[in-house]
Amino acid sequence: MKRAILVLVALTIAVTLPPFYSRWAESQRLKQIETVKQQARSVSGDRLETVLSELESGVSPSVVILYTGNTRSHLEPCGCYQEQSGGLPRRAYVVEQFRKHGFPTLLVDAGNIFDGEEKIDARRCEINMKALAVMGYSTVALSESDLDYGDVYLRRQRAVATFPFLAPRVGRDDFTQPFVVKHTGEHAIAFVAGRAYEEVVSQANVILALGDPEDSEHIDIVIRPDEVKVRVSEDEPLYVGCKSEGETLGMLALWMDADGKLIRHYATELALTDDVKGDDSIRQLLTDFYRDIADENRSQGSQLFTDQLLEQQQGNGYVSATACQRCHEQAYLQWSATRHAFAYETLLKKERYFDAKCVSCHTTGFGYQTGFHIGNPDSTLKGVQCEMCHGPGKQHVGNPKKSNIRNGADTSLCLQCHDTKHSPGFAEVVGLHTKDVDHSRAPMNLEELLASRIARMGKPTLELFVMSYCPFGVQAEEKIIPIVKKFGDQIDFKLQFIAREKEKPSAQDISPFTSLHGYPEVAENIRQLLIAREYPARYLDYILCRGKKLDKSWEDCARKLGIDVAKIQALFDTTEAEQLFRENIARAAELRIKASPTILVDNHKFRANQLLRASGTPCE
C-alpha cells in the first residue's frame, strides 16, 4: 500500500512539475527582460502634479520661468516605448497648466534651436517656431550654431515667430535684439544675450542670460542650452541647464521681496512622459505637417539588411506573410498575435506612418521595389513579417530550400531596429527575447493578446463581427463577453453585425435589410444595437441571455434584466434605428467580412478558433 502511494505521489510530481517549472521559468525570463529595460529607460524630471502641489503649498512665487534649450527643433519622441519623454504637445499642455493655476509664467528658450541642412529640416524648424508661438514664448536666444545658418535662413524663421530672437549686437538689428524686458506684476524680468547692457540694469529687477554669457556682471541667473547641474554661489549667478531635444521642461520659480530683490528660488525639470496629456492644437499642427510631407517621404528611408545576400539578389523579392502561411501554418499563427505583427498599427497610433525612418522598421521590405511603400493602405507588407528576419522569400516560395532563405538565428539583425535609441536595454537581453519569436510556441489566445496590447500600446480595439442567429457566433459571444467584462474600460469593444441592404427593396418587404437567417435575425441585430445604446451596462448580459433563448421571445431576457421592452420596441420602429443598423453593417461591408464570427484586434483579422480555442462552422 505504501509503495502504491509513493508511486502515485511520484507520478503526480512527474506530471505537474514540468508545467509548473515552465511557467516559473517563463515568468523569470519576462521579469529579467523588464528589469533590464526599465533600468535602461530611466525617466528624468519630476511629475507635473508634484511640482504644482509644492508651489501651491506655500507663498506663491513672484514669477515662474519655464525654459528649454538645445531642442534642435525636435518635435516629439518617436513613441517606441512608453517611458520616452518630450514632445511639443506635452510641453504645451504643461505650460497651460501653470497658467491655469494662476502663476505669473514666462516661457523662453536658451538656444541651439535650429537643426539640419535639408529642405525638410528648415520646414520642421518652421513648424517648431509656429508651435512656440502658439505656446506664447517670450523670447528665443540664438546660439553661435544657430547664427551660423545665415541671415536668409534666420529671417525666414523669424517671419514665422511671434517673439523676438535674442543675439549680441552683431549687425542683425532687423531680426535680432540683445535683450527683452518682461513685466510680471510689480517686477521686471530681463532676458539678455551676451551680457547685461546698461539700459537693462536700470530697468530690471532680475536679469537672466540665455546661453553662455560673455560677461556675467550684473547677471543673476544663467540658463544654458546644454545639460549642467544647478550651481549656486554667492559670487556667481545661479546656473541651470536643459535636457537636449526637449526631453524635459525646465522650471525656475523665483521669489522677490517688495524691492524686487531675489530672495529665493526653486529649480527643477518637469518630466514629459506618456502620462502627460497633449495639447490638441499643437497635436493638430504636427499632424498637418506630417501629412504635408508625406509625398516627399514616399521614396525615402534607409533600406535594411543591404549587406545580406538575399536582399542583394536581383531576382528575389518580398511576397508577404500570407505566402509563407501556405506551408508554415503554425509559425504564421504564432507570429500573427505578436507585437511584430502589430508594428504598423503602432505607427498609426503614434502618427508616424508618414515618417520613412520609422516605417522602415515597422513594415517589411521598405525601400525595396517589391517591399512596402508609404501611402499604400492596402499593402500586405505592413508590420514586421517573416521576411524581415528570414529575408525576401520570392525564390524560396518558388523553390523551397534552406539555401535560399535565412534561418533567422542571427540576432545582430534585430539590433538594426532595436538600437539603443529606440529600444534601450534590448541588446543586453536579445538572447532572452528569442523565445518571443519561437514559432513552435502556442499562439496567444484572446485574453493574452489583449493584455499584451494594453501593456504595449494602451487601449486596444476589439471588434466582433457576428450574425445574431449564427450558432458559432453565439458560441464566440459566450467566450468573448466574459473577457470584455474582465478588461472593462481598458479595451474598446465593438459589436459589428454582418448583413446587407437590399439594392431595390419592394413595397412588400418588411425591412430594407437582409441577413443569412432572414428577417428575425435582422430584427434581433437591430434590437441588440438599440439595447447597447440605451442600456450600455446591461447589453452584454442581454446578448448572453438571448443566445441561449433564440427560440423564445426577446422580451423574456429584456424583462429579466430590467430593460424597458416598450421603449426598445418604440425605438425599433423609427428611421433612427434603421440608420443605426445601416451604419453598423457598413464596417463589415467595407472590410469584406462575410464570416460569423470574425474577430479584429486593432484591425488585425483572426479566426475565432485561433483566439478563442473554439471549434465550429462559421456562417457565411
Which descriptors apply to this entry?
alpha/beta, single chain, 13% strand, 6-stranded mixed beta sheet, 5-stranded mixed beta sheet, 17 strands, 620 residues, 41% helix, 25 helices
Structure in words:
With 620 residues, the chain is of the alpha/beta class. Helices cover 41% and strands 13% of the residues. The protein contains 25 helices and 17 strands. The strands form 4 sheets. It has a 6-stranded mixed beta sheet with strand order 4-3-2-1-10-11, covered by helices on one side. A 5-stranded mixed beta sheet has the order 5-6-7-8-9. Strand 6, helix 7 and strand 7 form a beta-alpha-beta unit.
Query: Class by helix and strand content?
Result: alpha/beta
Strand order of the largest sheet: 4-3-2-1-10-11
CA-CA gap between termini: 59 Å
Report the portion of residues in β strands: 5-15%
* Main beta sheet: 6 strands, mixed
Q: Give the integer mean of the pLDDT values.
A: 91
User: Assembly state here?
Assistant: single chain
Rounded Rg? 31 Å
Number of helices: 25
Poorly predicted regions are none
Helix amount, in percent? 40-55%
Can you tell me the overall shape?
A: globular
Give the beta-strand count.
17
